[in-house]
Amino acid sequence: MLKLQAESNVPTQFGEFRMMAFSEDDKNWMPHMALIAKDTDLEKPTNVRIHSECITGEVFHSKKCECGEQLDSAMKYMQENGGIILYLRQEGRNIGIINKLKAYALQEKGLDTVQANLQLGLPADDRDFSVAIDMLEQIGVKSVNLMTNNPEKIKFIKDSNIGYNSRIPLQIKSNEASASYLKTKRDYFGHLLDDENQ
Ligand SMILES: Nc1nc2c(ncn2[C@@H]2O[C@H](COP(=O)(O)OP(=O)(O)OP(=O)(O)O)[C@@H](O)[C@H]2O)c(=O)[nH]1
Ligand SMILES: [Zn+2]
């Protein structure tokens, strides 16, 4: 069971967020995080972004994916409109950074993101979003406008006690390095992405 271990207000370049750390015990140095923009009204459908960790994209500005830009764009949106970002420690769709780099090495040899995971004997996507539901319940969110292109996340919300109100698309323009990754997301995982951005 996840427990709120600590919380504090933190000013960022986008504005101030109440940052909360959730984990099962306080020895966990990689807790899931909730960032609540000020003026977030939990009585109305709440804008929510469920975001999976990507150290290469968010910290090191990798061009292979759009995670860093998605996170920045979500932080900006939540400051402007109110809302919550759940930052889940699910690096590499939960296979971890070591396996993700191994998968990238296979991608250099021509495999796509899914084939690379499978070749490593790992699932294409090993994430379970029930931690997000747990966090939303503990925060007191009743229903959400979910910021995502991933139908799997929508399904998780619909199958939970949290109400699903609407989807907020979060589409970043692709570059040469990320185009094939985005194409796989659309073709294999059924992500709701427009053609012109592939
Ligand atoms: N295994 C693996 N993981 C990747 C790869 N590229 C990005 N990721 C991870 O994918 C996760 C982000 O998931 P995405 O599938 O890009 O997007 P999503 O969160 O499912 O969907 P959106 O809500 O629309 O952003 C992060 O944890 C990244 O580290 C890759 O080539 N292989
Ligand atoms: Zn990424």
From TrEMBL:
Belongs to the GTP cyclohydrolase II family. The active site is at 125 (proton acceptor), 127 (nucleophile). SUPFAM superfamilies: RibA-like. Its EC number is 3.5.4.25. This is GTP cyclohydrolase-2. Its cofactor is Zn(2+). CDD domains: GTP_cyclohydro2. GTP binds at residues 49-53, 70, 91-93, 113, 148, 153.
